[in-house]
Amino acid sequence: MDLKQSIYESTLYIHSMYAEPITVTDIAAKAYLSPSYFSFMFRTFTGYTVKNYLNRYRLHLAALDLRDSKKQLAEIAYANGFSSQQAFTRSFSQMYGVAPAQFRSLSPVVSPFPPENLWTKWRKPSMELMKCFESVSFVKKDAFFVAGFECDIHYNSGDGTAPIPGVWELWIEGNFKQNLPDQVSPGVTFGITHSENTDNKAKYFVGAEVKTLDNLPAGLIGRKFEASEYVVFDTTLEIIFTGKFWRTFYAEWLPKSGYAIQEEHDDLLNAFRKYPAIEVYPKGWENEQSVMQAYAPVVKK
């Protein structure tokens, strides 16, 4: 699933249906995502909530109508998706700082919405790939527990990572980031890849580190991973999404580092790998351009 393309196409749907009483649920359905997960990803990629984007788009078109036409305020309100002239006036005044009638008398310059650089900015990386590898740190992490949701993935299959958004949906919809008991670092979310085998099949886990697995809420999975040394990189979800971070890590950084990946397989039993790769989304993380960390388990050669 190309989430970025889905979000982009959802904005086109908003642009075509803005005059109708569409809801977040309607827009999310066009992206084949649940409303909660869609709302999270929409804000991640655009910087706006869905409702805020829709409202801003409606107000932008209304501002153009005020500037370029002699339509009555009620007509402008209904034509641009507002339920009443009063609702339009209230929303417009909050956005532009003046009432619609006064705005019209000012012959204003109307800034475009969405901003012209919204998607070009989206395509321009906030962090250059090689910057991720310029300054790294090493940490020794004791054995730890995590609680969350898990799915099977397959890197050699065209849709092999398609289940990943589903486990993120479960995590977000349950509000476990705030409500999960016994968290080690409340508000910090892990994306963990583990149990990778020679067929490039693996497990992907979304959850949080916890002090104990004794108090798991119903439906959550608990895992324990053994102590290891990790090399830690600053990166962004934007870079992780491209796949270039891990390719560069394995092809360029690791061979020159004097380290090797720490791993332990039991192919006969298909046991969980004890030493996972970890994406760490810190408390306060906001969107795909926010800095996060990637942890890789390593040992000295």
Overall morphology: elongated
Query: In this structure, how is the largest beta sheet organized?
Result: 9 strands, antiparallel
How many domains make up the coordinates?
2
CATH architecture of the largest domain: Alpha-Beta Barrel
Name the average pLDDT. 88
The top-level CATH class of the largest domain is: Alpha Beta
Order of helices and strands: HHHHHHHHEEHHEEEEHHEEE
Gap between N and C termini: 38 Å
SS field, number of helical segments: 12
Relative helix content: 25-40%
The gyration radius over C-alpha positions equals: 24 Å
What percent strand? 15-25%
Structural class given helices, strands, pairing? Answer: alpha+beta
The CATH homologous superfamily of the largest domain is named: Regulatory factor, effector binding domain
Which residue ranges are poorly predicted, with pLDDT under 50 across at least 5 consecutive positions? Answer: 267-272
Q: What is the fold named in CATH at topology level of the largest domain?
A: Multidrug-efflux Transporter 1 Regulator Bmrr, Chain A
Could you give the count of β-strands?
9
Short description:
This protein is of the alpha+beta class and 301 residues long. It is built from twelve helices and nine strands.
Please give a structural write-up:
With 301 residues, the chain is an alpha+beta fold. The protein folds into two domains: 3-118, Homeodomain-like (Arc Repressor Mutant, subunit A); 129-300, Multidrug-efflux Transporter 1 Regulator Bmrr, Chain A (Alpha-Beta Barrel), CATH 3.20.80. It is 39% helix and 21% strand. It is built from twelve helices and nine strands. Strands 1, 2, 3, 4, 5, 6, 7, 8 and 9 form a nine-stranded antiparallel β-sheet that branches. Strand 3 and strand 4 (201-210) form a beta hairpin. The longest helix has 19 residues, at 50-68. The radius of gyration is 24 Å and the shape is elongated. The protein starts with a helix and ends with a strand.
